[in-house]
Specification:
Radius of gyration: 19 Å
Order of helices and strands: EHEEHEHEHEEHEEEHEHEEH
Strand content: 15-25%
Strand order of the largest sheet: 3-2-1-4-5-6-11
Distance between the termini: 45 Å
Shape: globular
Length: about 325
């Protein structure tokens, strides 16, 4: 088995990805700016920042492949101050690609599921993430790169961070935001009319796709197209909100909460359709038919926040 580095390995997707790597017998080097999670057997921590090219080269010297997750997140959050996302998501990614190229390593880059929105006007997050995808194509075409792109749509599941007013995260994610309101009896807030399509994929399936893509890249080289990770069937934001409200009502014993519509925020596009071409999964021998269905994923997610977050929130 191999030793793989994971940038941003302490994040939401990173924590699941590390468990997936370990379950397949690999060793993991977690590359991150601040140690705040316990390392499991088979894991070591490497303190570093992807903006520091020396640290990234040192990581590459000690691993046999890299999954690059580290990024500054947020749609409207990165519009008011785009520099941090540009520095980390573009320059930091370039450092990872250069280091992997220096040592001839396979790598997988975490692209963005709404990459198409770069062409119709969106925030710095999508701009910076898709710019890094352009560098991937350059390295593969002209520098002998061994880099594949994996584009998950909205990843969700137990353990995802919670934004204000229910948590401390600075970035609002759809499932925690909807779930926390529903569990506390507040109406769910949906930006826009809710008819926009914003597909969600369970985080364990995302982790499997990243690890499978890296193993594939190590053996066969980079995939021809980005691997898009999402469900077979698309749903609207209103559909997701209703599923959350209905299941939260079951676990709390209350009537389902209502849905309140708010104006869309900067960087959001009315009538947007964020989906994935799941046929691209065939490049790494996967199919979305094996993914956790949305209703089951929402059940697991609501159960988690009901059991692990709600009692703490009530007593805070």
């Amino acid at each position: 088995m191999s030793v793989y580095g994971v940038t941003g390995g302490q994040g939401f997707i990173g924590s699941y990805l590390r468990r997936e790597l370990l379950s397949r017998g690999h060793e993991v080097v977690v590359f991150d700016r601040h140690p705040h999670t316990e390392m499991a057997a088979g894991e070591t921590f490497f303190l570093g920042d992807v903006r520091d090219e020396t640290a990234v080269v040192e990581l590459a010297a000690h691993v046999e492949g890299i999954i690059h997750l580290a990024a500054v997140l947020g749609t409207q959050e990165t519009i008011g101050n785009p520099r941090p996302s540009a520095e980390t998501n573009i320059r930091g990614s370039l450092n990872v690609f250069e280091a992997a190229n220096q040592y001839g390593l396979p790598a997988v880059y975490a692209g963005v599921g709404n990459a198409f929105m770069r062409d119709i006007g969106t925030g710095s997050y999508t701009i910076s993430k898709t710019a890094a995808e352009d560098y991937v194509r350059m390295f593969n075409a002209y520098r002998g790169g061994r880099i594949s792109i994996v584009r998950p749509v909205n990843a969700y599941g137990p353990g995802q961070s919670i934004a204000a007013p229910y948590g401390t995260s600075r970035v609002r994610k759809i499932l925690p935001a909807l779930t926390c309101r529903a569990l506390t009896g507040a109406d769910i807030e949906v930006y826009g009319d809710g008819t926009q399509v914003s597909d969600c994929v369970y985080v364990e399936d995302v982790a499997r796709a990243f690890v499978t893509a890296l193993e594939h890249t190590e053996q066969h080289g980079p995939t021809e197209r980005p691997v898009e990770v999402g469900p077979l069937e698309s749903v609207t934001v209103n559909d997701i909100a209703r599923l959350v409200a209905e299941y939260a009502a079951k676990v709390t014993g209350r009537e389902p909460v209502g849905i309140t519509h708010l104006p869309m925020r900067p960087g959001e596009v009315p009538n947007a359709v964020v989906t994935s071409d799941t046929a691209t999964l065939q490049q790494i021998g996967m199919t979305a038919a094996d993914f956790i269905p949305l209703d089951e994923g929402i059940r697991r997610t609501v159960d988690y926040y009901n059991e692990s977050w709600l009692p703490t929130y009530k007593t805070a």
